Amino acid sequence: MTLNGDPPKGPLADHEDSVLVSLAASGDARALAELYDRYSRIVMSFSLRMLSDPLAAEELTQEVFFRAWRQANAYNPSRGSFATWILSITHNMAIDELRKRNRRPQRADLDDPIATLANTPDADRSVEDRVWLGSLRDEMREALDILPDPQRHAIELAYFRGLTQREVAELLNEPLGTIKTRMRLGMRKLRTYLEEHEVELT
């Protein structure tokens, strides 16, 4: 349904994600199929990166979209893009699968402490360390909130969801050069913010 309550006109492929999610929430399987066509490749790529198992990643991808269909009413466009929302579901479900296998998720060997922060586990840390880490995550969230939405979305997808810059570009349907520029400018603003607020990353 559209914002005024009328059924959307024209092919589903012409409509925004939020309209398709609303239709999926009302039980429209065609809308879910359109969302699957748009985002299954990225979900599959992210699943494979975390699970390192093609068959398991394929099964997880199917389960992610099934859960997204069941929980479509929980999606709020004002809190972020559909891409970020469904990748959050993918991340949580992949973590659950890895816990069942008693394995830890694959972690990229990143030099940037900002990028590494999202993958820092809390296990085996002292109370002081956990308090510090929680505070640092809050600082990082506040820092991200100062960025323009296009820069913040690109950084969240790349650094906090594990996508490559090319995958981010494909997901957002933007030129690769545009994504690189957004991320470079966004990271520069983040570093300036953290330095001005004397945030210790180590």
Task: Write up this protein.
The chain is mostly helical and about 200 residues long. It has 2 domains: about 1-105, RNA polymerase sigma factor, region 2, helix turn helix motif (Rna Polymerase Sigma Factor, Chain: A, Orthogonal Bundle), CATH 1.10.1740; about 110-200, Orthogonal Bundle (Arc Repressor Mutant, subunit A), CATH 1.10.10.10. Helices cover about 65% and strands about 0% of the residues. The chain has 9 helices and no strands. Helix 8 packs across helix 9 (about 175-195). The radius of gyration is 18 Å and the shape is globular. The model is unreliable at about 105-125 (pLDDT under 50).
State the main characteristics.
202 residues, mainly alpha, Rna Polymerase Sigma Factor, Chain: A, Arc Repressor Mutant, subunit A, 2 domains, 66% helix, 0% strand, globular
- Total number of strands: 0
Oligomer: single chain
- By CATH, the topology of the largest domain is Rna Polymerase Sigma Factor, Chain: A
Low-pLDDT residue spans: 106-125
